[in-house]
Design a protein that fits this description.
- This protein has a two-stranded antiparallel sheet with strand order 1-2.
- The mean pLDDT is 78.
- The chain is mainly α.
- The chain is 70% helix and 3% strand.
- The chain is globular, with a radius of gyration of 20 Å.
- It is built from 8 helices and 2 strands.
- Helix 6 packs antiparallel against helix 7.
- It has a single domain, classed as Hypothetical protein af1432.
Protein backbone atom coordinates (compact mmCIF):
# COMPACT_ATOMS: atom_id res chain seq x y z
CA UNK A 1 0.00 0.00 0.00
CA UNK A 2 2.93 2.33 0.64
CA UNK A 3 3.85 2.11 -3.06
CA UNK A 4 0.39 3.31 -4.08
CA UNK A 5 0.61 6.22 -1.67
CA UNK A 6 3.96 7.22 -3.20
CA UNK A 7 2.45 7.10 -6.70
CA UNK A 8 -0.52 9.19 -5.58
CA UNK A 9 1.68 11.79 -3.88
CA UNK A 10 4.18 12.12 -6.74
CA UNK A 11 1.62 12.96 -9.42
CA UNK A 12 -1.05 14.66 -7.37
CA UNK A 13 -0.92 18.20 -8.71
CA UNK A 14 -3.45 20.97 -9.12
CA UNK A 15 -3.30 20.51 -12.91
CA UNK A 16 -4.06 16.79 -12.56
CA UNK A 17 -6.95 17.53 -10.22
CA UNK A 18 -8.41 20.11 -12.63
CA UNK A 19 -8.01 17.71 -15.56
CA UNK A 20 -9.72 14.97 -13.56
CA UNK A 21 -12.60 17.32 -12.69
CA UNK A 22 -12.98 18.19 -16.36
CA UNK A 23 -13.11 14.49 -17.32
CA UNK A 24 -15.92 13.63 -14.90
CA UNK A 25 -17.87 16.91 -14.82
CA UNK A 26 -20.84 15.57 -16.81
CA UNK A 27 -21.02 12.52 -14.52
CA UNK A 28 -20.75 14.60 -11.34
CA UNK A 29 -23.57 16.90 -12.47
CA UNK A 30 -26.00 14.07 -13.24
CA UNK A 31 -28.92 13.90 -10.78
CA UNK A 32 -29.00 10.10 -10.77
CA UNK A 33 -25.28 9.94 -9.96
CA UNK A 34 -25.83 12.43 -7.13
CA UNK A 35 -28.26 9.92 -5.59
CA UNK A 36 -25.23 7.83 -4.64
CA UNK A 37 -24.77 10.36 -1.80
CA UNK A 38 -27.88 8.82 -0.21
CA UNK A 39 -26.28 5.42 0.32
CA UNK A 40 -23.42 4.35 2.59
CA UNK A 41 -20.74 2.24 0.97
CA UNK A 42 -18.06 1.62 3.61
CA UNK A 43 -19.09 2.77 7.08
CA UNK A 44 -19.21 6.60 6.97
CA UNK A 45 -18.22 6.87 3.31
CA UNK A 46 -21.08 7.33 0.86
CA UNK A 47 -21.22 5.44 -2.39
CA UNK A 48 -20.59 8.72 -4.22
CA UNK A 49 -17.49 9.55 -2.12
CA UNK A 50 -16.17 6.02 -2.63
CA UNK A 51 -16.64 6.23 -6.40
CA UNK A 52 -14.98 9.65 -6.47
CA UNK A 53 -11.98 8.25 -4.55
CA UNK A 54 -11.70 5.24 -6.87
CA UNK A 55 -12.06 7.42 -9.96
CA UNK A 56 -9.39 9.90 -8.87
CA UNK A 57 -6.81 7.35 -7.71
CA UNK A 58 -7.41 5.26 -10.86
CA UNK A 59 -6.94 8.38 -12.95
CA UNK A 60 -3.61 9.08 -11.21
CA UNK A 61 -2.27 5.54 -11.59
CA UNK A 62 -3.35 5.23 -15.23
CA UNK A 63 -1.91 8.62 -16.08
CA UNK A 64 1.40 7.67 -14.43
CA UNK A 65 1.44 4.40 -16.39
CA UNK A 66 0.54 6.06 -19.74
CA UNK A 67 -2.77 4.21 -19.94
CA UNK A 68 -6.30 5.39 -20.76
CA UNK A 69 -6.83 7.58 -17.68
CA UNK A 70 -10.02 9.08 -19.12
CA UNK A 71 -11.82 5.72 -19.30
CA UNK A 72 -10.46 4.73 -15.89
CA UNK A 73 -11.70 7.96 -14.29
CA UNK A 74 -15.15 7.83 -15.90
CA UNK A 75 -15.73 4.13 -15.22
CA UNK A 76 -14.33 4.51 -11.71
CA UNK A 77 -16.94 7.17 -11.05
CA UNK A 78 -19.71 4.84 -12.27
CA UNK A 79 -18.48 1.46 -11.00
CA UNK A 80 -20.87 1.35 -8.00
CA UNK A 81 -23.91 3.09 -9.48
CA UNK A 82 -26.32 0.51 -8.02
CA UNK A 83 -28.54 2.96 -6.02
CA UNK A 84 -29.70 0.83 -3.10
CA UNK A 85 -28.50 0.10 0.42
CA UNK A 86 -26.79 -3.24 -0.02
CA UNK A 87 -26.97 -3.94 3.73
CA UNK A 88 -30.79 -4.03 3.78
CA UNK A 89 -32.87 -7.01 2.63
CA UNK A 90 -34.53 -6.54 -0.75
CA UNK A 91 -37.38 -8.39 -2.40
CA UNK A 92 -35.72 -8.32 -5.84
CA UNK A 93 -32.39 -9.50 -4.44
CA UNK A 94 -30.98 -12.17 -6.72
CA UNK A 95 -27.64 -13.40 -5.49
CA UNK A 96 -24.87 -11.95 -3.38
CA UNK A 97 -24.34 -8.18 -3.72
CA UNK A 98 -20.64 -8.60 -4.55
CA UNK A 99 -21.51 -10.66 -7.62
CA UNK A 100 -24.65 -8.79 -8.66
CA UNK A 101 -23.92 -5.07 -8.31
CA UNK A 102 -21.43 -4.66 -11.20
CA UNK A 103 -24.16 -5.60 -13.70
CA UNK A 104 -26.67 -3.34 -11.96
CA UNK A 105 -24.16 -0.48 -12.05
CA UNK A 106 -23.47 -1.09 -15.75
CA UNK A 107 -27.20 -1.10 -16.57
CA UNK A 108 -27.73 2.15 -14.67
CA UNK A 109 -24.65 3.82 -16.19
CA UNK A 110 -25.56 2.70 -19.72
CA UNK A 111 -28.95 4.40 -19.43
CA UNK A 112 -27.27 7.70 -18.58
CA UNK A 113 -24.03 7.78 -20.59
CA UNK A 114 -22.49 6.47 -23.79
CA UNK A 115 -19.88 4.02 -22.55
CA UNK A 116 -16.93 2.61 -24.45
CA UNK A 117 -16.24 -1.13 -24.39
CA UNK A 118 -13.33 -0.43 -22.05
CA UNK A 119 -15.53 1.51 -19.61
CA UNK A 120 -18.10 -1.31 -19.68
CA UNK A 121 -15.37 -3.85 -18.94
CA UNK A 122 -14.02 -1.74 -16.07
CA UNK A 123 -17.48 -1.45 -14.47
CA UNK A 124 -18.43 -5.11 -14.86
CA UNK A 125 -15.05 -6.49 -13.81
CA UNK A 126 -14.24 -4.16 -10.91
CA UNK A 127 -15.00 -6.95 -8.41
CA UNK A 128 -12.38 -9.25 -9.93
CA UNK A 129 -11.21 -11.78 -8.71
CA UNK A 130 -14.54 -12.43 -6.92
CA UNK A 131 -16.41 -12.32 -10.23
CA UNK A 132 -13.86 -14.77 -11.73
CA UNK A 133 -14.07 -13.51 -15.36
CA UNK A 134 -10.76 -11.86 -16.24
CA UNK A 135 -10.73 -8.18 -17.17
CA UNK A 136 -9.76 -7.43 -20.79
CA UNK A 137 -7.86 -4.21 -20.15
CA UNK A 138 -5.02 -3.06 -17.89
CA UNK A 139 -7.25 -0.19 -16.77
CA UNK A 140 -9.82 -2.74 -15.53
CA UNK A 141 -7.21 -4.37 -13.31
CA UNK A 142 -6.10 -0.99 -12.00
CA UNK A 143 -9.64 0.15 -11.13
CA UNK A 144 -10.28 -3.22 -9.47
CA UNK A 145 -7.13 -2.90 -7.34
CA UNK A 146 -7.78 0.77 -6.52
CA UNK A 147 -11.35 -0.15 -5.52
CA UNK A 148 -9.98 -2.60 -2.94
CA UNK A 149 -7.38 -0.05 -1.79
CA UNK A 150 -10.07 2.60 -1.25
CA UNK A 151 -12.38 0.15 0.56
CA UNK A 152 -9.57 -0.76 2.95
CA UNK A 153 -8.55 2.87 3.42
CA UNK A 154 -12.15 3.93 4.12
CA UNK A 155 -12.65 1.06 6.58
CA UNK A 156 -9.41 1.76 8.44
CA UNK A 157 -10.32 5.45 8.67
CA UNK A 158 -13.64 4.54 10.28
CA UNK A 159 -12.10 2.11 12.76
CA UNK A 160 -9.35 4.56 13.75
CA UNK A 161 -11.99 7.15 14.64
CA UNK A 162 -14.10 4.54 16.47
CA UNK A 163 -11.18 3.28 18.56
CA UNK A 164 -10.10 6.82 19.47
CA UNK A 165 -13.65 7.54 20.58
CA UNK A 166 -13.76 4.32 22.61
CA UNK A 167 -10.43 5.19 24.26
CA UNK A 168 -11.72 8.68 25.05
CA UNK A 169 -14.87 7.19 26.63
CA UNK A 170 -12.77 4.75 28.67
CA UNK A 171 -10.60 7.56 30.05
CA UNK A 172 -13.65 9.76 30.72
CA UNK A 173 -15.24 6.84 32.60
CA UNK A 174 -12.08 6.32 34.68
CA UNK A 175 -11.90 10.07 35.36
CA UNK A 176 -15.54 10.10 36.57
CA UNK A 177 -14.92 7.09 38.84
CA UNK A 178 -11.85 8.82 40.32
CA UNK A 179 -13.88 12.00 40.99
CA UNK A 180 -16.65 9.93 42.54
CA UNK A 181 -14.18 8.10 44.79
CA UNK A 182 -12.45 11.33 45.82
CA UNK A 183 -15.76 12.98 46.75
CA UNK A 184 -17.12 9.92 48.58
Amino acid sequence: MKGLIIIFNTIYTRDNYLEFQDIIKDIECDETVKLMNSFKQHYNTTCYEHCLNVAFYSYLVCKKCNLDFVSAARAGMLHDLFLYDWRLPREDKKGFHGFRHPKVALNNASKLFDLSNKEKDIITKHMWPITIILPKYKESYIVSCVDKYCAIKESISYYKKTFKFQRLCKYAYIFLIMIFLIHS
